[in-house]
Amino acid sequence: MTDYDVLRVFCAANGGYGNELGVVRDGSVLPDRAERQALAAKLGFSETVFVDDPERGVVDIYTPTLRLPFAGHPCVGTAWLLDVPELVTPAGVVGARQDGEFTWIEARAEWAPPRTLRRYATAAEVDDLPVPPKGEWVYAWAWEDEPAGRVRARGFPGRDDGIDEDEATGAAALLLTAELGRALNITQGTGSQLLTAPQPGGWVEIGGRVVLER
Asked: Number of structural domains, the chain?
């Protein structure tokens, strides 16, 4: 079996929750894309990262069914694990930094895969949502405290890969931040926390806590 680490990314303040991520630190053991896709499907995480150059931060990201040019929680988790100043993804170079308990990355909204950002009137409505029909990636959100920038969100990938709800989704948070043009403190899923902040020139920072699960 290929060696891999399991992280939880975008954890709550107590270290709980967060979205699981698989990271194969030595991507050379599976150089073929088909083999990587097969392992990502077998592991079943929302994303699995293969590190092709740990010093330069070159990474390759897969869901159980497809390869992604960029994804938020894999980049945050891998930046924390490798402790590098940047990651090189097919979409572009992702800046990274550590700030106390938070790991931050800097990326562009146009790198994120398409998401349907669906606003609801209250956080309670978001809490009560059933899983929507397959076919579109839905990021359901509502203000918990608009002046403070606090958001309640849930992510539904809409794919047939066994993942009905994504616990924490950096790419969707990136898109929402770009659309609203302000810093956000997002509670997603059962209790994950994502922080975001717009930057000059169309960049957005996304930050969160990372825990090594095993």
From this structure: 2
